[in-house]
Structures are given as C-alpha cells and as structure tokens.
Specification:
This protein is 75% helix and 3% strand. It is mainly alpha-helical. α17 packs antiparallel against α19. The radius of gyration is 22 Å and the shape is globular. The protein starts with a helix and ends in a 5-residue tail after the last helix.
C-alpha cells in the first residue's frame, strides 16, 4: 500500500471502526478515536508534499493494480501539481471538522464522526484516481456520507435539502458516466484517463463529451444557474457539513474541469470557453448582488462561495498560466477561508441558536477573542492583501486582463461586492453596542474553539504572505496542461 492508498483507506477504516463502536455511551472514546484517525490521515499526506518533485508534470506516487481485469479496469492512483494540494487540504479540513464537532454533537456521535472520516477518504480518492471508472466510483460515493450528514444532523428542512443536494449532483453525473463509457470504447477498452488525453477526437465528439462533463462538474462547483441546491444544503447542514461542503466538495467539480474537460476535449474547451466565461461572470456579478440582501449568515457565505468559485472557472477558461494557477490557488484559499467563515457562524449558532444577522450586534463587547478571528476571516473573504483570499483572486484578475481587458474589469468588481456584503455583515454582527440580552450573555471562545480557529488563521495568513510554496508545486503541471490544450487534436 502506497501513500495515496493509506490517505484513502486509513480514514475509511477509522470511519468503519467508529460506526462499529458508535453508541452514545461510548461518546468519549469515539471522539478520541475520531481525532486519532483524522490526525493520522493528515500525517500520512505530508510526505506527498515533502517528497514531491516540482520539476515534472508526470504523475507521482503512482500505484496500479488490476481491479476488474475482464474490463481492463485498474486501481490506478497518482497525483501531480494539479491535485496533490487537494489531498492535503481534504485531510487537514477533516481534522478541523472533528475538533469542531467535539462538544457540539451529542447524539449519534460515532455515526457523525464516522461519516466525515469515510467522506474524507472518498474525496481523497477523487483527487488521486487516474482510472476513469475508479474516479466515477469515488465521485459518486461522496454523495452518500454528505447526504446522511445533512439528512440526520441538519436543520428543520434537512430532508428537503439532502434530497435536493443528492438529486442535483446525481443527475448531472449520469451524463458523465455515458461519456466515460464512450471514451472506454473509443480508446480500445481502457479507462486510463491519461490515455484519453491523447485520443484524436473530432470536434463534434469533443463537444458532446465537453457538455457531458460540464453537466456533472458545473452542478458540483456549482455554477449559475444550477447553484440553487447549495444555499439550501448549507443552511440545513450542521456546521461540519457546511465546512466540508464549501472547503472540499465544491472543488471536486472544479478539479473535474482540469482533469477531464480541458485535456480530453481541448478543441471544444476553446470553442465553448466564451460560455464558461459568461456563466462565471454572471456568478461573480449577479450572485454577489444576491449575497448583499441575505439576512441569514449561512446563506450569505453560501452565495459568497458561489461567487468565489465563479472566479475559479473563469481562471481555467482564459487559458493562461496566471489565470489557471490563480484559480487553483483560489480553490485552496477558499477551502481555508470559507471553512473558517462557516465555523465562526457555528460558534455563534451554538450559543444563540440563530443564524439571522438581526439576532446579533456588538458581539465584540462580549467575545473579543472570537471577533478578532471572525474579522480576520471576513477580511480574507474580501480579498485583503496579506491573506489567502487575495492571492488567487489577484492572479485571476491579472490573467483575465491579459486575456481581455473588459472581462478583467468585470471580474474585478467581485472585490467591491465581496467587500460590501462581507463588511456589511461584520458591521451588523460584531460591532456597535450590545444589541440584546442574548449577545450580552455570550461567553468568549473556549480552548477547543480557539485551537481550531487559530490553526485556520495560521493557514490563511501563511498562504497570503508566502504563496510561493503552493504555486511552485502546480506551475509545471499547469504549463503542461495549457500546452496540451493549445495543441489541437484536429490537425
């Protein structure tokens, strides 16, 4: 078993163990086992970065074993500069989620922690899979734990939100399955994704494949107008569910564009880039305005996520290094920042049991330590220089200006809208006089809450001040991807 297999199966094994011992009378032991499982899973991923060769675009840490020999299906894993950071991000966020749910979850603790660890392993599998069928199995399997997390530990409308999440994301993926089967026969009976990259496909076939993949990945991102499941899922999900949904699960769709849509159908990707750019700009502009009028903090951050992910898809389809590297950096930074924002909302909700902005006011007077963290993460969400939120957005804007000045100008308006809706929320929730008795009775964060927010604060500042370790890892792979996309398969 290589490092990638360990990163996939250790959290799944711990998750199954937690399901086996997960009675509520064993809650203390369950929490400890869950934390051990999450920390070990994260430590296993660290050698992927420390031992990563930045000078090659080839797959590294490759594992390949026969799986379904009759159909030439392999258990084939590997990572490159496009995927390796997401393996670490997934394991890192899982540790934070376990700490976040330590005291808050009091019923079905084993099942809750087990679902997150199993989900963590499955999401790592999506980023590591190099076999098309294996990718599809992991991609679809991630729906099950998240469906259960929303449906059992969610809010009053949790069943509606869970069904909507499941049906939206499953429906799009069925077209992707058709595309994978087509590619299997077209390549002479192979599910090897890298072999598919080299197939000389005509433009009409590429177009059909491109839109089949688009159906799956656009819903997952989510892009406008198939974004409506996300605010419902976020509002009803428990805090940990919202964190994983925003920090990792949205990235599965964006990663799919990099691994499938662009390299398998490069001519179609260039042909229909205008459509993706247009939809991305709608997400940046229109969804930013929608976020401005939200009264529920979770909904506001959910719409903010859609706008930020619009930046990601915009960066991919302007086909220059600044844009694509910036988009991948934005995906990682959004994982830190959006996860932190949802954790901050969870801290307030645990005390007041309301997500409405009107229920708060003057929180800084009773929770000064917490407010310091919350404002830092809010500034990162605005794209403040020196924080993780700035680096990716700035690179995508520069790349967009290089591609087309007016597209860059429209993209840059997100900095205005982002600052408007985020600072408007911060002003009404955290500053001013104490608004009511609920806020007056608030107690500042405890040691557990301080730890999880401090870890994320370090990540947000480290990436904002020193982004080079992140960009160095992905640079060569991005250059190779863009070279591949620029080389027409039709000539």
């Amino acid at each position: 078993m290589g490092l990638l297999s360990l990163a996939i199966w250790i959290p799944i094994a711990f998750g199954v163990l937690l399901l086996a011992i997960g009675r509520d009378q064993n809650a203390a032991m369950v929490r400890i086992v869950a934390l051990i499982g999450a920390v070990v899973s994260f430590l296993v991923t660290l050698p992927l970065i420390t031992g990563f060769d930045n000078g090659t675009a080839a797959l590294q840490f490759v594992e390949k074993q026969a799986w379904i020999e009759r159909f030439n299906v392999f258990y084939h894993l590997g990572v490159d500069g496009l995927s390796v950071w997401f393996v670490l991000l997934t394991a890192f966020i899982t540790v934070i989620v376990v700490i976040a749910g330590w005291e808050v979850i009091t019923e079905k603790v084993g099942q809750y922690m087990g679902a997150f660890l199993i989900l963590s392993g499955l999401m790592v599998g999506v980023f590591a899979a190099v076999d098309g069928l294996l990718f599809y199995v992991f991609f679809e399997a991630t729906l099950i734990p998240m469906y259960i997390i929303i449906g059992i530990w969610g809010g009053p409308r949790r069943v509606y939100a869970a069904f909507k999440f499941f049906l939206y994301t499953l429906a799009g993926s069925l077209l992707m399955l058709v595309a994978l089967i087509y590619l299997y026969f077209k390549s002479g009976g192979s599910f090897d994704i890298l072999a598919w990259h080299k197939l000389p496909l005509p433009l009409d076939a590429q177009a059909l494949l491109f839109f089949a993949f688009f159906a799956a990945f656009s819903v997952k991102v989510p892009m406008w107008p198939v974004h409506t499941w996300l605010p419902d899922a976020h509002v009803e999900a428990p805090t940990g569910g919202s964190v994983v949904l925003a920090a990792i699960m949205l990235k599965l769709g964006a990663y799919g564009f990099l691994r499938f849509s662009m390299p398998i159908a490069p001519d179609a990707a260039r042909e229909y880039a205008w459509l993706i750019i247009a939809l991305s700009l709608v997400a940046v502009l229109y969804i930013g305005l929608v976020a401005l009028v939200q009264q529920d903090m979770k909904k506001l951050v959910a719409y903010s996520s859609i706008a930020h992910m619009g930046f990601v898809t915009l960066g991919f389809f302007i086909f220059n290094e600044l844009g694509v590297v910036g988009a991948i950096v934005q995906m990682i930074s959004h994982g830190f920042v959006s996860g932190a924002m949802f954790l901050c909302i969870g801290v307030l909700y645990d005390r007041v049991h309301s997500r409405e902005i009107a229920s708060y006011g003057g929180v800084v007077n009773t929770m000064p330590k917490f407010t310091a963290f919350a404002v830092l993460f809010a500034m990162a969400n605005c794209g403040l220089p020196g924080t993780a939120g700035f680096v990716g957005e700035w690179m995508v804007i520069l790349g967009a200006v290089k591609y087309n000045f007016w597209i860059g100008l429209l993209a840059a308006t997100t900095l205005i809208f982002g600052a408007a809706y985020t600072l408007w929320m911060v002003k009404r929730v955290y500053f001013g006089d104490v608004a009511n008795d609920d806020v007056k009775a608030l107690a500042d964060i405890n040691g557990r809450e301080f730890l999880m927010l401090a870890i994320l604060a370090v990540a947000v500042l480290w990436m904002g001040i020193q982004p080079k370790p992140f960009t160095d890892v992905m640079q060569v792979s991005v250059t190779e991807l863009l070279r591949h996309v620029a080389t027409s398969k039709l000539n």
